[in-house]
Amino acid sequence: MLRFRRAATAFVLAAAGVAAAALPAQQAGAASGSVFLYKIYYNSPGSDTGSQTSLDAEYVQIANTTSSNVSLKGWTLTDASRHVYTFGTYSLGAHRSVVVHTGKGGNTAAHRYQGRAWYVWNNDKDTATLRRSTGATVDTCSYNSARVAYKLC
C-alpha cells in the first residue's frame, strides 16, 4: 500500500498556497485507491506570532486517490494533544486533495479552516490522525524533526 500511495500522490503542489490537485490520468486508475494524510506543514514560515497568515500556512493535506467522491462528514483530524477538527458536510472529490488550515477563512472544496487563534501542530514532533465518523482510524502520520517545516506522509 505504501508503494501505491507514494506513486499515486504525484500532486503538483506549491508550499503554502496548495490547491486541490488532480492526479495524473495514468496514476488515477491504479488499484482502488484510498483516502489518506498526504502532507503536514507544521512549521509555518517566519516567527510564530499567531498572525492569520502564519496560522493559515500551518496545514494538513488529505488526498483521495479513489475513483469516487468520499463524504468526510463527521470525520476528524486530531493531533497528539487531542486538538480535534471535525468535518461538517463535505465531500472530497475523486483524485483530489483538501488542505485543512489551522487558522480562519472561508471554506471551499480545496481549503477548509479549523478557525483556531493559535497553532495546533508542534514545530518539533507530533502525530496527525484521520478518523472516520465511526471513530475508526483511516491514517496516521508522525514527524520528529525541527530541521524541516513539513512532512510528506
UniProtKB/TrEMBL annotation:
<protein>
    <submittedName>
        <fullName>Lamin tail domain-containing protein</fullName>
    </submittedName>
</protein>
<dbReference type="InterPro" id="IPR036415">
    <property type="entry name" value="Lamin_tail_dom_sf"/>
</dbReference>
<feature type="signal peptide">
    <location>
        <begin position="1"/>
        <end position="21"/>
    </location>
</feature>
<dbReference type="Pfam" id="PF00932">
    <property type="entry name" value="LTD"/>
</dbReference>
<keyword id="KW-0732">Signal</keyword>
<feature type="domain" description="LTD">
    <location>
        <begin position="22"/>
        <end position="145"/>
    </location>
</feature>
<dbReference type="InterPro" id="IPR001322">
    <property type="entry name" value="Lamin_tail_dom"/>
</dbReference>
